[in-house]
Specification:
The complex is a heterodimer. By secondary structure, chain A is α+β, with helices and mostly antiparallel strands. Chain A contains 8 helices and 20 strands. A 6-stranded mixed β-sheet of chain A has the order 6-7-8-3-9-10, with helices on both faces. By secondary structure, chain B is mainly α. Chain B is 73% helix and 0% strand. In chain B, helix 2 crosses helix 14 and helix 5 runs parallel beside helix 8. Classes of the chains: A alpha+beta, B mainly alpha.
């Protein structure tokens, strides 16, 4: 039993099922991020937890209390909306205390709670202003203050940072993370931004097409994606996925991939059970940062393979240099150190960290488990 | 900035410009002419009017016709002036405007934020109220008023106007609330506000512009209505418009044109006032929602 249990929750609109038997259990103090492309059902799921949308079948429990049919205000949750949803006709102070007022908390107690939250979020000087007079970041703080003041069991965030400019978004991200660390609250957070998902979460549920594709820690999701969707959705630039063939050389399974001139590079797998796929086609997944020059290769890795290939384009980005090449008939990107000596048209000796490589079944698109 | 506006303005010659202003001035005068005639003749003794020269300024200035129209002119059988009927109109208009506006706001709120099955069809049906001619509802309405015992009363008239006005007020508020962010309603729900609390505390305080539109529209229409007033009111509950008609159309005695003019201005005064006080919000309210922000 978790703190928040989503148990076989299904949502349909008429005959159209948009969420299919979602099963997630969140522990107390956990930061769960629901991530996926638009239309994947993540916001619907959040609204179902909030009680703003009904559950078609299945159950949602908070602290072992079944929440199906319970009014949003009686679930002891708080939500931060994408547009902040601050009441335009009320001051910041009134916005923060409106929920307490609706729950019949006496005025002196409301004032005290408001002051505490305002201090925590450093918005004390804004309490008498109207939302229209605030900047985006300030509105974001007020929206969080409104959620915090209720001292809820579960915080729900619906893409709270997507209306902010890039720099402020990074700052607020850090602040949300700090807040979570200090307060130890249980948070469910919806975003389409995979970097937000990776940085904030203690666990991620990657969603697509109404299904939870994978549920796991950021590291699990990144290193051992369950399928090609998760592999390519998480990470930027995306994981390179290319067709390859398994061949067993000297008792060890290798991935046979075509380089630019059609000749085959042999990349040894760390995963022994792939020997069973000898002679069969797979999809090989390699993250851009695991293709480097020899000097930049991961020293801790026990399986660095070498491969010579022709560089097509180089894209210096300051901190890194992105190099693209042809591999397995696909455009493949490598992420190199910024001072790697590379030039377009050059035949270059790449180091591939095969310890991190993953193989997918081309038919089911699922990762071939070790 | 100022230079830019100069450049983008349409360039016209001095002659054309003068011509345009002349024509505009002419039209302006033409439209103001009836008001001028009414004002000028309402402060003349009757002999000056009957002696010809309707357009002349008064030789003898008198406010007597105004006092007469207000408190002593013969209306129907009693020499009461328009005063009691003016109050009849107020007693009809004020509750009718308030109630129809509040109901319209509530309807708009439900139709946009508490969607239910067939709500658009229901809204479509309500819009019929905007297009049905008055004459069609006269007889059924008279029957209804008789059944509920409000026939021939000011309250009955107010009810008729509320019913007839709901279509318009619902249309205004529904379109206004359609662009009102639903997330605010959801936030208030999570905060624990109920149906009416959300309405009073969140929605209504943000409805200023559209409420003004609804009030002006309803006030003008109800105040100016003649048909319902003539059909459903008895001698004691007739509104201003019907009384004015009775004053002007009386077939006995001398036609006191100066009193008629004064009475007509009195009858038009409240709507004029409402426009002057709230008119600038009218256009703003009508435009609301068309531009984001």
């Amino acid at each position: 039993m978790g703190f928040l249990d989503i148990d076989n929750a299904t949502k349909s609109y008429g005959a159209v099922e948009v969420l299919h038997k979602v099963d997630i259990s969140v522990q107390e103090g956990e930061f769960l991020v629901l991530v996926g492309p638009s239309g994947c059902g993540k916001s619907t799921l959040l609204n179902m937890i909030a009680g703003l949308e009904e559950i078609t079948s299945g159950e949602i429990r908070i602290k072992d209390q079944v929440m199906n049919g319970v009014h949003p205000s009686n679930r002891n949750i708080a939500m931060v909306f994408q547009s902040y949803a601050l009441y335009p006709n009320m001051t910041v102070g009134q916005n923060i205390t409106f929920g307490l007022e609706m729950h019949g908390v006496p005025k002196p107690k409301r004032e005290k709670a408001m002051q505490e939250v305002a201090k925590l979020l450093q918005i004390e000087q804004l309490l008498d202003r109207k939302p229209g007079q605030l900047s985006g970041g300030q509105r974001q703080r007020v929206a969080m203050g409104r959620a915090l003041v209720r001292n809820p069991d579960v915080f729900l965030f619906d893409e709270p940072l997507s209306n902010l400019d890039a720099k402020l978004r990074v700052d607020m991200r850090t602040e949300i993370k700090k807040l979570h660390q200090n307060l130890g609250t249980t948070i469910v957070y919806v975003t389409h931004d995979q970097i937000e998902a990776m940085t904030l979460s203690s666990r991620i549920a990657v969603m697509n097409g109404g299904y939870v594709q994978q549920l796991g820690t950021p590291q699990e999701i990144y290193d051992t994606p369950a399928n090609i969707f998760v592999a390519t959705f998480m990470g930027s630039p995306a994981m390179n996925v290319m067709p390859a063939k398994v061949s067993v050389l000297n008792g060890r399974p290798h991935a046979e991939v075509a380089v630019h001139d059609g000749s085959m590079a042999q990349l040894p797998f760390s995963q022994d059970n792939l020997a069973a796929w000898d002679g069969r086609d797979i999809l090989l997944g390699i993250r851009p940062e695991t293709i480097t020059d020899m000097d930049g290769a991961d020293r801790k890795s026990s399986n660095i393979a070498q491969m010579t290939n022709r560089i097509v384009v180089t894209e210096p980005a300051g901190s890194d240099t992105f190099v693209s090449m042809q591999l397995g008939g696909r455009d493949v990107i490598a992420r190199m150190r910024s001072d790697a000596e590379v030039a377009p048209g050059q035949d270059f000796n790449f180091a591939v960290n095969m310890e991190k490589a993953v193989a997918f079944d081309p038919e089911s698109e699922m990762r071939i488990l070790p | 900035m100022s230079q830019a506006t100069q450049d983008t303005a349409i360039r016209t010659g001095r002659v054309t410009r003068t011509l345009i202003y002349l024509v505009l001035l002419l039209f302006g005068l033409f439209y103001l002419l009836p008001l001028y005639v009414m004002l000028v003749n309402s402060v003349k003794p009757l002999e000056e009017i009957t002696g010809g020269g309707m357009m002349n300024l008064p030789q003898v200035f008198t406010l007597e016709p105004w006092f007469k129209a207000w408190s002593s002119a013969q209306i129907g059988v009693d020499p009461t002036g328009l005063k009691p009927y003016f109050w009849n109109s107020i007693k009809m208009v004020v509750p009718a405007v308030i109630v129809s506006t509040i109901l319209g706001a509530l309807n708009g709120y439900v139709l946009t934020k508490w969607r239910f099955k067939y709500d658009t069809i229901l809204f479509g049906l309500m819009l019929f109220a905007c297009f049905i001619p008055f004459q069609i509802v006269l007889i059924p309405m008279a029957r209804m008023l008789g059944i509920i015992g409000l026939a021939g009363t000011t309250w009955g008239l107010a009810l008729v106007h509320v019913v007839y006005g709901i279509g318009f007020t619902t249309l205004y508020f529904r379109n206004y609330y359609a662009v009102f962010p639903t997330e605010l309603i959801r936030a208030a729900q999570i905060d624990g506000a109920g149906f009416f609390q959300i309405f009073w505390r969140i929605l209504l305080p943000s409805s200023g512009p559209i409420a003004v539109v609804s009030i002006i529209w309803q006030f003008t229409n109800i105040w100016n209505d003649f048909l319902f007033g003539a059909s459903f009111a008895d001698a004691n509950s007739q509104p201003m418009t019907v009384a004015l008609n009775n004053l002007v159309q009386s077939s006995t005695g001398v036609k006191e044109y100066n009193v008629h003019f004064a009475g007509a201005i009195l009858a038009a005064m409240p709507t004029l006032l409402v426009y002057i006080v709230a008119g600038r919000y009218f256009v703003r309210g009508l435009m609301a929602g068309s531009v984001k922000g």
